[in-house]
Amino acid sequence: KVPVYGVPGTNRERTFLAVKPDGVQRGLVGDIIARFEKRGYKLVGLKMVWPTMEMAQTHYKDLSKKPFFPSLCQFFSSGPIICMCWEGKDIIKQGRQMLGETQPLASKPGSIRGDYSIDLGRNICHGSDSPEAAAHELEMWFPEGVNDWGKTVDSWVYES
Ligand code: UDP
Ligand code: MG
């Protein structure tokens, strides 16, 4: 059995990706899931959660000293989010690339933020930025675990 945080550096690497309240409100959930599915990644965990203020503060605890922390947590708990656990080779780095840069202005068209966002505080999506962050975030958002299922097309996605 693979632990919830996956096996970094292998095809079983896992990351936590979320569609933030703005992405849900704007109807971008299907598009975002489709991008990762089409690339070949495997969805192993998926649910909608309306974060409490405490959950938002825990999720963003590394930013608690920043001036924007209160407004960020207010926003993150303002409506439901889509919590996802995606699995596959290099998914932590690739997930961040597919999201785009934190700042929408720096995000290339073709990335989620580069295609759909304008403002820093409304940048649609979240993704773990390291294996350590992925482990913490997956344990926080998926305490019940995820699904270790075999995807039959994997031999057409991976050489080995
Ligand atoms: N953020 C903000 N103001 C800032 C920096 C960040 O509102 O000056 C928000 C932004 O929405 C970002 C989130 O806080 O996505 C978390 O910041 P982080 O630096 O972790 O960026 P991310 O990992 O989401 O790219
Ligand atoms: Mg971050």
Which strand order does the major sheet show? 2-3-1-4
CATH topology: Alpha-Beta Plaits
- Count every beta strand, where a strand is a DSSP E run of 2 or more residues: 4
Low-confidence stretches: none
Which small molecules are bound? uridine-5'-diphosphate, magnesium ion
Mean pLDDT: 98
Percentage of residues in DSSP E strands: 15-25%
H/E topology pattern:
EHHEHHEHHEHH
Q: What general outline do the C-alpha atoms trace?
A: globular
* CATH level-4 homologous superfamily: Nucleoside diphosphate kinase-like domain
Known CATH architecture: 2-Layer Sandwich
Q: Give me the number of helical elements.
A: 8
What is the structural class? alpha+beta
What is the CATH C level class, in words?
Alpha Beta
- Count of domains: 1
What share of residues is helical?
Answer: 25-40%
Rg over alpha carbons: 15 Å
Could you give a short account of the major beta sheet?
A: 4 strands, antiparallel
What gap, in angstroms, lies between the N and C termini? 20 Å
